[in-house]
Design a protein that fits this description.
This protein is mostly helical. The protein is about 90% helix and about 0% strand. The longest helix has 25 residues. About 0% of the residues are buried.
Length: about 30
């Protein structure tokens, strides 16, 4: 169960980082 939880958290973190990376490239002004 712990491994599954760790994998889930890692996946969510990578998704969030990916979104932040896209936002930083596009520019915060165009997003907000």
């Amino acid at each position: 169960l712990l491994d599954a939880m760790t994998a889930y958290m890692a996946q969510m973190e990578s998704e969030v980082l990916g979104k932040v990376d896209k936002l930083s490239r596009a520019g915060w002004d165009s997003y907000s």
